Amino acid sequence: MVNRIRELPQNSKIVATHTDSPDVLIWDVEVQPNRHAVLGAADSRPDLILTGHQENAEFALAMCPTEPFVLSGGKDKLVVLWSIHDHISTLAKEQGPTKSPGSTSTSTKHASKGGGGNDNHVEGPSVEARGIYQGHEDTVEDVQFCPSSAQEFCSVGDDSCLILWDARAGSTPAIKVEKAHNADIHCVDWNRHDINLILTGSADNTIHMFDRRNLSSGSPVHKLVGHSAAVLCVQWSPDKSSVFGSSAEDGILNIWDHEKIGKRQDTAGLKAPNAPPGLFFQHAGHRDKVVDFHWNTSDPWTIVSVSDDCESTNGGGTLQIWRMIDLIYRPVDEVLAELDKFKPHILGCEKN
């Protein structure tokens, strides 16, 4: 079973997957024999197998925005870092002057298609980790690269810890927030517009926003309460530095703007008049827990979200692509000026 998939920012045809296995699988979707629905196509085989975990690595997976690096976390409490280019370097060394281009001796690994006792295996060239980082005391649930540095990254886990790592400084935590939440932490995201801001979401139903310049205090800049169940995913907007989304087991996807905290609350997109500070829109179109979502980087304010509807529909899930009306997120003065243009028409309709 595929639990998570991420694409390489430098090449969208290269993706990484997490399954119920210790390995991370790398695929070039363009060369897979069954990339199209054709009867009789050969079985898929990963182009690369990333090794280094000792137990299953199911969910924590990230691709670096600046380098072809892959980051993973797992049940073994480890954070593991790879470079896809290490495979190319290995091939170059093995194809030295004494070997022909077709006589490489790249190591081949058997990767389990599933977890547990599944005996179905696939083969592929393998790459060992560049670094293995120890600091968590329980399962690592999510990882994220710093948007401006391939050597800096963060992780969260079931030990309620948020850890920042610097690969240049060794395999121990650079900064560790011991009690970042009051329960398991499921997700983390790093602001690409302001690299000092980091979001975390937890089983305690809250989202915390941390400033990495003040992580030693252990206190978040903001604690946001707007879900009635565990938060499963958080992600900053690519279009506005202060806006982010959060999804949870309550089936709701919330849109927040931390710049609105402490200001007069605009609840144009909400039915509830007393919305939590910073919350300005709720998407309630899913029937069950929203397990993942992503902002569209090419189409501002467009979001794709996925829910696991197994409990409510006895199987399957739902994928939705949606966008809130622009009157909700545009500046208030601008919206009022536009609506004012329609005032004569509305008054005319009332008279008739």
Automatic annotation (TrEMBL):
Q: Where is composition skewed (Low complexity) in this entry?
A: 97-109
Q: Which InterPro entries match?
A: WD40/YVTN_repeat-like_dom_sf, WD40_repeat_dom_sf, WD40_rpt, WD_repeat_RBAP46/RBAP48/MSI1
Region of interest: Disordered: 92-125
Q: Which domain of life is it from?
A: Eukaryota
WD repeat locations: 133-175, 178-211, 224-257
Keyword annotations of the record: Repeat, WD repeat
The reply to whether Protein transport figures as a keyword in the UniProt entry is: no
Q: What is this protein called?
A: Uncharacterized protein
Give the species this sequence originates from: Gossypium raimondii (Peruvian cotton)
